[in-house]
Structures are given as C-alpha cells and as structure tokens.
Amino acid sequence: MTSNRNKAREVAAFFQGVATVDHVPLECPEYRDDDVGAIAREKARFAYEHLKKPLIVDDTGFFIPALGGFPGPYAAYVLGTIGLEGVLRLMEGKEDTRAWFETAIAYADEGGIRIFRGRIEGVIVAPRGSGGFGYDPIVAVDGRTLAEMPLAEKAGISHRGRALAALKEWLAAGGPDSGPHTNC
Amino acid sequence: MTSNRNKAREVAAFFQGVATVDHVPLECPEYRDDDVGAIAREKARFAYEHLKKPLIVDDTGFFIPALGGFPGPYAAYVLGTIGLEGVLRLMEGKEDTRAWFETAIAYADEGGIRIFRGRIEGVIVAPRGSGGFGYDPIVAVDGRTLAEMPLAEKAGISHRGRALAALKEWLAAGGPDSGPHTNC
C-alpha cells in the first residue's frame, strides 16, 4: 500500500516470485512522530482496519545529528519550504556533518504488525550530481553523492532497498507463518 | 480537550459563565497537514469518536512567508531541533521578514465540527524580552516582541486569544443550537 505509483512498481518488481503486490491508493492521516517506525506502524494499523488484508506501508526520514535530528520525519516538508539551500545554510560551520536516511516498512496482517528498517549514512556536502531526487545531491557516501550514483547502485545500498531486503528475507523464510508479530 | 493543563485552565477561565469546560487527557495521533484548521478538524473527529460529548481541540502553527511557510505546523519540532538560532540563520538577508501565528480551534458535537481561527502577524527580529515562550522573543508586533509584552496584553491580541474569542462569541449567540455545522 503506497500512494506513489513509481514506488509501488519498484516494490512489485522487488517481490517478483516471492509475493504478489497490488497498489491500493488510500487516504490516510499522516501521523507525527520522531520515529519513522512508529509512523509506519500507525499508518499500517489504519490501513489494515480499512482494507482487512495483508499490506505494507513505509515511512522515511532524513536525520542530521548536528541539527538535533532535523528534518527527521518532516524531510519532504522541509525540502518544499527552505529547500536544500536552507539545510546547507543551517549546516554552515558545523563540524559534525553526518546525516542518514531511514526507512521503516510496516507489514500488517491478521497476526499483527512487523517493522523492517533500513538505513544509509553519509555526510552533508555541497550539491553534486544530477541523478536521484530530494536530498540526494547533498548526501555523500564514500566520496560520491547519492545523485552521482547509478540508480541500480543506489537502490542496492539505499535505506529503502535495505528495508525491502529485510522484509523479503522474512517473507521468503515463512514470514507470517512464523507466528504472531505485533510489537516486534 | 487539550493535553496541556495550563492551556486547559486558561480556556476554562475564558469560558467562565458561558460554558463549563473539563480537561480530558487523550492520546491522539498527530496529523500532518499544512493547514492548522485541517489538523484541528482531524483531531476533533478522532476525539469525538472516543468521547462522544461536545469538545474543543486546537492546533497552532507559525508561518514565515520568506521560508515558504516554514516551520508551519511543525513549529514545536523545529524549535526543539534547530531552535531560534536556526530560524534566525535561515532569515539572514531576507527582505520579507513577516511572520504569523495561527491557531485553529475545532468545536465538535453530535451536529458536526466547526473551526474558529485566530491569527497574529509580526516581523522576525533578533531575540528580545524574557516573557512568553517558544518563538515569542523573535516576533515583534508594533515594535515590541511578544516576549516583551505583559501576559494579559499578549493574551488579548494573540492568535489563541482571538480564536477563543470567536468561539466564545458563537457559543454566546446560541452556538450548536444554530444548526448542524459540519464543513464550515
């Protein structure tokens, strides 16, 4: 379950041969929390109450320790208001330039909700590269920004890719059949 | 209905002689939206479903046009991460220094939900004053920051004061008895 068709297509491709994934657009309240896992959990609970069939939802945040974790779960809002330029301005003179993306995927079915997380860590740099989207041009991992990496390479190490891989592994190992999974 | 006891006391005092107001703590999801009215409406809907009696909830945002409306409904989160210093840094060199607070109060009962709004506009300045809280030291109205004003004076012109006044006027004029009020 995701409201973004491209993301849905990516997810469906990822699970080819393991599970069938349909895309169901659903108006869902956007919960506020500092933890993407808690947000994904709430969205999954809401969606399962409405759809009553196994589903996944995700939530992603972007965290900069030198800014107290900002923009955190509000990465999209911050990008749309103060933009990369604003974030770079806030980082001027900061010694700790670390930053990471974190995605939480919540899987929900009649047995409960299970959370899978993926994270990618880098450092904030001046914008470079024309690929990717969002914060990609200002986040460098091992010397290259995410906007400088080929899409396939980025997908292999990205926060979302890692969270999806964890979910896929669990599903391939029996997943829901391994018992109830609320609060894990 | 508010989870803040001081605010509840202020509200109860405000309605003395017009209505009796109890404070009911309730765990409520925090909805994300650019509009405080939409957030207050969702919170009121959630709370009414649980409490099934007339209630008010509020939501407040802080909007800076030069920053695309940032921090908007995430004023508390932004204050707790990048702080006043971060906001002032983002404002360096901006010609348009306007900023406003907006509070939306949602009244809910069996007839539906009605929204009351209050707004106070000022300009962003270097911090001054020791009163108030939050963004008050950097928001000047007619030459003084909100942190330089006596509390009673601030309450009289504030966003929350104005929203409460609009609600009080409606209640005094018959309020809910004037008919259904969803979607106003």
Name the descriptors:
6-stranded antiparallel beta sheet, homodimer, alpha+beta, Maf protein, 184 residues
Descriptive notes:
Chain A has helices spanning 5-14, 36-51, 75-81, 83-91, 151-157, 159-172; strands at residues 55-63, 71-72, 98-109, 112-124, 139-141, 144-145. Chain A has a single domain, classed as Alpha-Beta Complex (Maf protein). Chain A has 184 residues and is of the alpha+beta class. The first copy, chain A, is built from 6 helices and 6 strands. Chain A starts with a helix and ends in a 12-residue tail after the last helix. Chain A binds chain B through residues 29-34, 42, 67-72, 74, 77-78, 80-83, 86, 89-90, 92, and chain B through 29-34, 42, 67-72, 74, 77-78, 80-83, 86, 89-90, 92.
